[in-house]
Amino acid sequence: MIRPGSAVGLLEVRGLTAALAAADSMAKAAPVDVRGPVRIGDGLVTLAVVGEIGAIDEALATGREAAARLGQVVAWSRIGRPEPELAAVFGWPEQPREPHPGRTTIDDGTAPTPRHSPGATGPRRPASAAGQVEGDARDG
Asked: What range defines the domain where residue 29 resides?
């Protein structure tokens, strides 16, 4: 679902490096939620940004500049007040996440689950070649 009153911006570029540079610059330039990348094929990658209309315009402008430096900008579009069910087309979650105050988020929908949670069971210690656990400076 897309929050009422939000806008969606789409940026399609050629090349994953150009897409990542665009996503980074969009996230830093405006208070938007960056979604994607959606790999189309033949090197095409589409990114989406969700937020207020002014923020979308600013993010798309900076994203286009960053992508053009490293690859090719193929297309871009801004959709003001999109149909809420548009999120299903992209496979976005039903309920939007609450944004962190003053921060932007990048969500590709495929974030891996952390294999270790620091503090939950203490520090992680790498296994040696013999299968034993190596100690750290705090072992004493």
From this structure: 7-94
Token pair of 89, please?
A: 């087309």
In-domain check, residue 85: yes
pTM of the predicted model over 0.85: no
Residue with tokens 């190596």: 134
CB atoms within 10 A of CB 110: 5
Encoded tokens for 61: 């402008």
pLDDT digits (tens, 9 = 90+) for 47-97: 999 999 999 999 999 999 999 999 999 999 999 888 877 777 766 665 445
pLDDT value for 3: 72
Look at residue 10 and tell me whether its pLDDT is greater than 90: yes
CA 15 to CA 61: how far, in whole Å?
Answer: 18
Domain at 73, CATH number: 3.30.70.1710
CA distances from 32 to 14, 49, 127, 131 (A): 22, 6, 41, 46
Q: How far is CA 134 from the centre of its chain?
A: 36
Strands 72-80 and 7-14: antiparallel
